[in-house]
Amino acid sequence: MERDPQPPEIKEKFLAFVNRFHAEHSYERDFRVLAHKLDITVKNGDKDEYFTTADEKPYIIIDISNPRNRQKFSGLHELSHHLFEIAEEGELRAFLRSFHNRDSEISREIEEDLCNQAAAQMLISKPIFDAVRDQYGYTPQSIFEIAKRTDASLQASLRRLVFAYSIDVQAVIVDRNCKVIDSLAHGQHRGKYKIGYDFILPNDHPLSNMIKNNSKEVEELFEAHVPFKSKQSKWTSKVMVASNYSLGKTIAFFLDSYPNNNKNQLTLFDLIN
User: Fold this and answer.
1) Hey, what CATH topology would domain 126-269 get?
2) Under the phi-then-psi rule, with left for phi > 0, alpha for psi from -120 to 50, and beta for the rest, what region is 139?
């Protein structure tokens, strides 16, 4: 490398490395199979962890008390720490740590985020992801379709789609009781403002009204403010919503503007994958 890469470049190079690795291993989704190929020892424990011993032998510990879907994602997340360790012969991790040499906590947070993205990429393989994206574009409906085709959780499916684009978005997964069970903030602008989770939407929020008044699968577009957990906000946004009645879940994207989902123009969104 002619110069030290910046964090966005580190991210791009790492995720490209993960894609190549995954393709070389036939898009295998079982972290235990991939760990075996990498000579990583996997053991059950009471927490999720990746580490190397003094003699540089890699280990993954998996908390088997978690639900099965959580274990699948966690295993790939911990495996991704190993991939980050070996990517570009260790240079990417070294560059990240030197870039934030005065604040190791920032480096740790960035690496955790990168490993979440890498895990989502491997759990939801590129061929399946591309097929769904070509059919449904950048929409909440894609999340339900990804989960259906891969048996991944809605949470993992949400991250797979959102992380693949540079679009600024805040997203929520809401149950039929209007409880926000997960949220995600992504992008240079909206990524700084977390919505939170484990709270009930205000009764007068348009998203609440939509959920309460519909008893079938529905897709809608409207404008509403972002429903932050910790404070009142008048940040009015464009909203894209999809509901799956059989799952009892609704997914909403809060955006600056509606994306153009013409698959021939997807490059306008600066795709990572």
Assistant:
1) Beta-Lactamase (3.30.450)
2) beta
